[in-house]
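Reposting from the mailing list since nobody answered there.

I have sequence plus structure tokens for a pair of proteins and want to know whether others read the tokens the same way I do. The first protein:
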Amino acid sequence: MFKKPIKVKTQNILKGSERKKLRELVARSFPNAKEEDILSLIPTKEEVSVLKIAQSRMLIYLLGKEPILFDPNDDNDIYPTAFTLHKIPNILPTLTIFPPVLHYILKGANLMLPGVADDNIGVCQIGDKRSVVLMGTSFPIAVGTMAIASRTGIIERKGIALSVIHHFRDTLSEMGTRIDITIPDISEDDKLATEFSEGVDIIDSESTITATETTTTTTTTTTETTDINNNNSESSSSTPPGDKSMDELLLASFLQAIRTKLKDKKLPILINVFYATMMIPCRPVGTELEIKKSSYKKLSVFLYAMKVLVGEGDPLGLISLVEESPGVIYITAVHRGNEIYRRFQPHISVQDEEDREAEKTKPKGDGKIKIKEIFELPPSLHRIIESDSNIQCIQGPKKEVLFTTTDIAEILWTYVRINSLDQPLLEEKSFPSLSSSTTTTPSKQQTSSKRAPSKATPSEPTPSKEQPPSKPASTVRVDSFLAANLYKGKVSEGTEVQKQDILMAFKEKLRPFYQIVRENGDVDVKKGKVQMIQISSAKVSNKWVTSITNLAGLCSIDFSVVTRDLQHKFACSTSTTKDVSGVCDKILVHGNFVKEVAEYLVEKYHVPKRSYSS
């Protein structure tokens, strides 16, 4: 973990109250530490400060200039430094190693079980903190977390024993006073060194302190899955029988989920959503997934293990993870070129069985539905309908005469066309007439023009060649009926308005209805505007809850059926709420499943996509 130089972002001196809290945290984290040891580690009068590390959530506590504790992820999960291990050697349970193993630990290797000198390591769980002691000395030289669990303390000499997080001579220990020990001089060709170095997992020297890869959990899962990869990569590629362990069942369900259900377009996805909506349905038929009965205990630990699970020659694990904040982890990528991924053969899952049953028995919904907006003309505008007798109307629930959006526009334009409201008025012109010329005494010019009509002056009008002025075709002239009943006197008769404006004014006068046409032939007509289905999520008592409203307005689905299906689909609790009249109007799904619920309702109950508003 501490390979590169540590870049400090800020340094703050702890107050008295903060020191007290830190002592309490040390007492809880390290039960073996005595009260006087804790007081000497965090004294009252000496300066104790905390460092925040750049580009990381790590905290390092200093006594003067000596690092005493560090918290990899700022979550009160603290570890002692080499200085503290030297000062309080029994602060943690220990694992004794053979001298040849020390060289590999100093190179950044995890501790392998063949290198443990203890015959009985004691009862331990994965993630328990242990220090490493060199055989023949009492000085701990490293600290880490257990990568194995044992109820009896008896172990097999195979695999990883401890994920080493910090050891002396790394950059953290070099921050303070240099601590040194006498290291036995053992040559590389020593048989003992060769024997105990077999299978040692060397960590890349380029490892750095990052926000997502320096937590204790990450280190534990890295070492654990390396052993899984070495021993079980062949068997994990095949369909698991019912008698396999929970770890292998999780692996098979995980591979089935990322192979058949997790598409790239659904990334990134929260790990709990992935587990509930994909892993659980992808488990083999007749099995149940219980993460707590596995060696991983937590979903995050298991997925971090999958992150580093590689096949032969693979540079990357199965997935990539990003932890945006403590506990909020996303799967951001699936490495489909991974050897384990490519060799996996899908099995018959619970989801496959459910799909087969769904094909045999259709859901209790009404099949695919279509929603149409329809309108009723008010009595004051019924005269417009008389202009077009070919328009077909829809019968309302109370014998209302209803029309679709297309029919409404056709009715209006037919009225306009029949009444010539789209034709402009010709302006009246005054032309000279022959009768008027005989009643007056003509002048000499007039007399000469009469004698020679072929030589008419250019100023003389020629009515036969006069063209009517052109008007825009997109305007409509308002007649007396439209002015009185559509515009209510706000627009005077003869005013020309744009077609789109008169159509909008016409629609505003209509009464809205909507028609639901189902695949089975049933047609429902309901009054009012279409009530969009609302799907939203919010935190209630620090827990996410997804709410679905207005579902009953569009789909005649039994709410008890929907809540049961959602409960099984997302492996969570569901409930309903009732309005004042005692009718169920909202479904609550415990969890953040807005997108998933919308997709499920479209797939299962054929709810139109355009009916959602989230």
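The second protein, same order (residues first, tokens after):
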Amino acid sequence: ALATFFEFLDIYYYIPLCMHKSFFHLCSLFSLVCFTSCSKKVDVLLKANWDNQPLIAQAGEFIGDVNPSLYWSFFEYISNCITDSSTDLDCFNCALKFCTQYMPFGYSQLFEFVQGLQYYAPRVQMYRHIAQEYTQGYNFSNNSCNIFVVLCDTIVVCDITLLDTYLPLNLTTCVSKYLDIGHPSTLLLSNINITSNSAIAVVYGPFGRQITFNYFAKIKSLVKVDLLTGFVYRPWYTSENGHYSSLLSGYGVELAIKDTEYHTMDDPTFEDDYDTDLDQFLFIPTLDGLNFQVLSSLYISYSQELYSLQNRILEIKQQLLPLKKWQISDLGLQLCQWLLNSFPQMGYNALYSLSEFMKFFPVECKQLYLLDITDGLRKEILYNQRIMHTFGVENGQNLFLLNGVIQILDPFTMMPFLINEMSQFSKLESLGMSPIDIYSLMQLDFDLDEMEYAIDTRHDCIFHINDIENDIEYSSWTRNLHELLRPTFPGVIRQIRRNFFNLVMCLDPSELYTYHLLKSADYFFSNNIAVTIGFIFLSSDATDVAKSEIIESFSCFFSFLSNNISQKFAFNWLLDISTFMFSNNRTFSLQELANNFHKYTDNKFIFNFSCS
């Protein structure tokens, strides 16, 4: 996972950043193999108390989050790529091949990083726990039922041929829990308002298997004849077809195992009867200037003595020797220098070496204190420290910036940010931008809270009655922005032919109090105050159907007058109606409103108008 993470960061270019007395360390996730000082080895596997989740189901959740339109394509691709005898490695390679072929550049590296972290394992485990609520009381221990369907949270169907007998459902008593309609695995009828009483089938079964496809085909046929509203799929595996204990790995697990070994395992000298077969000995090519492979081939009769000498040298090298104060004062700088010296020749293998180096740092640090530190590195670190102080980071603390945004050193916390950054990178790349321009743009830290609008004045639902930049009434005003710097009386809005200031009123034109709001808008409009005025028509009671129809008629009539006569004419019509209602203390019915509209427009043009 370590190399995959840095390979993923290399998409946005990798810039080394060294820090005094601190260094970032990400632990690689590998199975632990412990070797003793002799030729015998001990394999240690530490099992967790929770089950391992299938990689292919986690891959489906990742692809569904990144691009929901590819979810079912990936499901079909996997069903043709793997079989019941496929291993986890085969499933991983199939999923990686799909990401490489059908997803933008860089998502394959991100996929490897996600799989290394098992980021989506908790979600798959959650689906399994939900499925267990329905499987209680049913015999799912054998392989006869690897997939089942849940209807209305009470009906569990294992045999797909019996699904028709439970339909149609009684929607008055049908209540479904745990419905995630936004999940990419959801297939619904179009233009359907989903509620908790909807007839939705929830399918639990293995991901990417042919038996699951057969269930989908049957349910889709029921959806087409309106017996079901749709269905939701969730990956589920029985103990026989996908679950086994998860193996723990990583730097912390290795330390725990080593600590246990030091206290419980004796290290005796093995008195085995060695023969001269070289296959029993594992010689190191070069160790302190000696090539034991060459020596063992030249002096076959002394193979056992050479092997004992090699092990003795290794034991001496692994001894903890006390270091003086001057030898450890610059270990952080020397470690940075070692990494920078190794990176040009070793590339990302230097990061693997750094991971191994940090595991045995007390033993390996004696190789560092003799390393010279260049003046360029010292200047670079001092420069980086000054930058870090601007973020409030002192010596000995860490700072992790990803595309210019401060991140917590927690892969699980930064994963949503990585997915979002990759999505933005792909969209910018599709626009034809070069990687250098994308890198510079994505380093900017935008504060989204400052960019949110209370009301977007450009929205189509707003009816504007004036446009300062284009209306002829404001043609005498200047467009020069320097007018903003000219001294004027306090509280006066400068007459600049720009739509700087906007007044948007949310009105219910059928109510009497709307008259006061319209009179305020008329004051701004009649006195040529540099404010763009707009209206949004809405109902104060959304449950009143008759009132909603009157609001829609107001909106339709106002839009028609604005487009065919003028915006000022439409505003005057609305103001006259509001004045009449306020003066007579009564509201208009739908028929009275239509009669008033036709009477008001009778002398302006001659043609029929209908508002539907």
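Reply #1 (J.P.):
I read it the same way you do. The mean pLDDT is 75.
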